[in-house]
């Protein structure tokens, strides 16, 4: 409670000091409006628009017609402005398809791991992938086979969000190819065991 009282007291004195300083700056700025500038680091005044009294007689009609036609800045388009970053290129259907492919590819990898473990434990074959061979005699093969689907999921997600039309069109290919390969390997291993 003491800490919260100190925080409130500190914040109120800081904000009061800031409001006094901003009032002083505003007063100084308002008094120096008509005064000539002494500091070279300040910015010059903004340019003044042409009027009929400071233009030549030849182009007076052209300037006055142009200035009356475009009294203010007109928008280029009436459509709302979208922010440059953070635009989503995928549709909800594509996002749901991506999630479905995540589930299918990881399930296929688990089936491949199960059938491989079953075939190796019955001495009906050996692991053909040299990277998975150290894990083939233990239950760690289930975790090791999930690495490839994670990489394919990431690649598919990046392709789905890509600004390249060709990559965005075939975003589903890495996940589908990985799932098909895992199901094919799982069926092969499953047929090895009688």
Structure description:
The chain has 194 residues and is mainly α. It has a domain of 98 residues. The chain is 58% helix and 0% strand. The chain has seven helices and no strands. Helix 3 packs antiparallel against helix 5. The radius of gyration is 36 Å and the shape is elongated. The N and C termini lie far apart (74 Å). The model has no long low-confidence stretch (mean pLDDT 78).
Radius of gyration: 36 Å
CA distance, first residue to last residue: 74 Å
Biggest beta sheet attributes: none
Number of strands: 0
**Beta-strand percentage?**
under 5%
The average pLDDT score comes to 78
- Tally of individual helices: 7
- Secondary-structure content class: mainly alpha
Q: Can you tell me the residue ranges where pLDDT is under 50 for at least 5 consecutive residues?
A: none
In N-to-C order, the SSE pattern is HHHHHHH
Q: What gross morphology would you assign?
A: elongated
Please give the share of residues in helix: 55-70%
Summarize the structure.
The protein has 194 residues and is mostly helical. The chain has a domain at 95-192.
